[in-house]
Amino acid sequence: MSGTGRSRKGLPVRSFDPAAHVDDIVALGSRSLGWAGDERDRAFFAWKHLENPFGSSPAWGAWDGDRLVAFRTLMRWELTHDDASLRLVRAVDTATDPEYQGKGLFRQLTTQAVDELTADGVDAVFNTPNDQSRPGYLKMGWVELGRPTLLVHPGSPAVLARMVRARVPAAKWSEPVTYGVPAGEVVSELRPAAVEQWATERTGEHLRWRYGFEPLHYRAIEVKGGHAVFRVRQRGPLREVAIVDWLSGQPDLAAVFRLVRACGDYAVAIGLGARHGFVPMPRQGPIVTWRTLANPVVPAFADVGFALGDLELF
To answer: Which of 44, 179, 213, 281 sits CB 3.0–4.6 Å from 262 for a disulfide?
Structure first.
């Protein structure tokens, strides 16, 4: 189901096929989000929104003539538990041309997306908005689902103090490292650990897509009972090792220690613990928000087993 609405300024707002407008989207991202607008950005958008095995991302845009001046994409996702599944979307990329900001386009695009996705039978939206954008989502019917505990394995005691002072976003692009192997090369060997919650079904197809985009430099290492997937990014003056998926039911403190020593100043994860060498960083994890669509049930946060790879910004 799709339709065309109008913003308060009379601009047509409608769903559109992002595959046919990648250049328009990347150009708008360059004007409003600081994207480089190069081939890497085009490849990144295509991988993220067109090659996702859960389905290509639905998109909505505001147009001034034939010029795209605002867009909103929601990435398709699924959670499974036993034999049940939830059809979801994750609210991710959105941008408004600087000349058109303050005209209500973000809200119009989002509310139209909510209406059409509900009619299409999508169960819910989830995302991790920052402190600036979260109030706007809450006003549009989102609720705070919960906050996972961010865990850290510091390379040294001095790193903890430096982390507190370096509260800046991580770089978008990962740092290339040679430790481990490219995660996409060992997909056939990756086996997710059993989870007794709603969780992303980590099929080979999903893992190949999620961690196989070469410019993001996801790597895999062997750990006791399986593998861990990670990437390295600069966060202020520090190099952060994000363990995005721990595909094993066993801890391996020695493997985490070797990884941090080889690749960065510290490691972060969610869902691991002291046996892996991690300590909690209270009130530092992303706040997960949820907006019901066709399914009115809001799950308890404890009933959803998110990995960092499900929630990190990419």
So the answer is: 179
Q: Where are the beta strands (DSSP E) in the chain?
A: 4-6, 12-16, 59-64, 67-81, 84-96, 124-127, 143-146, 150-154, 181-182, 199-200, 219-223, 226-235, 238-247, 266-269, 279-281, 288-292
pTM: 0.91
DSSP codes, 144-209: EEE-PPEEEEESSHHHHHHHHH--SPPPSSPPP--SSEEGGGGGGG--PPP-SSBEE---HHHHHH
Options 3.30.70.100, 3.40.630.30, 3.40.50.300, 2.60.40.10; CATH of 4-147+287-301: 3.40.630.30
